[in-house]
Amino acid sequence: MNLSQRLRLGLRTVASDTADGLFEITHNGFALVGLLVIGATLVLGLQPEWRQAGESQLMSWLQTRQMAASGTEPDLSGIERATASDPRNLPRQQAAVAFWLSNKYRVAPEPVSALVAEAYETGLRIQLDPTLILAVMAVESGFNPFAQSSMGAQGLMQVMTRVHSDKYELFGGKLAAFDPVSNLRVGARVLQECIQRGGSIESGLKHYVGAALVDDDGGYAAKVLAEHTRLLQVARDANSTRKVALWTGA
Fold first, then answer.
1. Where in the chain is the domain with CATH 1.10.530.10?
2. How much is the pTM?
3. pLDDT tens digits, residue range 176-227?
4. What fold characterizes domain 87-248?
5. Dist CA 233 CA 74 (whole Å)
6. Apex 40 CA angle, 37 and 42, nearest 5
């Protein structure tokens, strides 16, 4: 064997020994990590308070990493504050009403679905037709929760906040006028009181808009009643698969 062959053989031997050593180190390293993970799992399983602390630290670390990567501080409670729900989860009649309103007023179906569901629940609780509540909401604000009139009526149902501030106390104060659900509940209660005072829906609507003592309400009651009639028809037609498909674009 000449010198060149001996050199090549020596290099192959060194490379083989190096590879075997790295494999052994890596193998032992993985085994050590595995043992550490198993040990940590057992310890945390035996100590609930340690597990909770560990989970909290891990979540904090993940959020910090996400903020560093995106430049935005994560806030996982945002979904809890959103007034929105999947319209497909609503009963068929409510879903039909939600999609119809969404299409007509060009607002997203998810927040409208939450409002429709709330209107039905509130209407059942105070014995007021939910489609009438929604009709008032549509005419008053077009489903803009931040609307405000020149007279100071605010929110979805344009409730006079300064007049009905006592009703908002149940929801934390006057700023709740801009919370869609709070405004809906207060507005529905005000509407109910107006109808009881007026003795009929039409007269109650005149009270609601502040035109009870004048002959002309600017066509307000007629607009609400027309919208109410349309919503009632949509609700009645909810069993028609073809019509619901047209509303939803399916």
1. 87-248
2. 0.69
3. 999 999 999 999 999 999 999 999 999 999 999 998 888 888 999 999 999 9
4. Lysozyme (1.10.530)
5. 44
6. 110
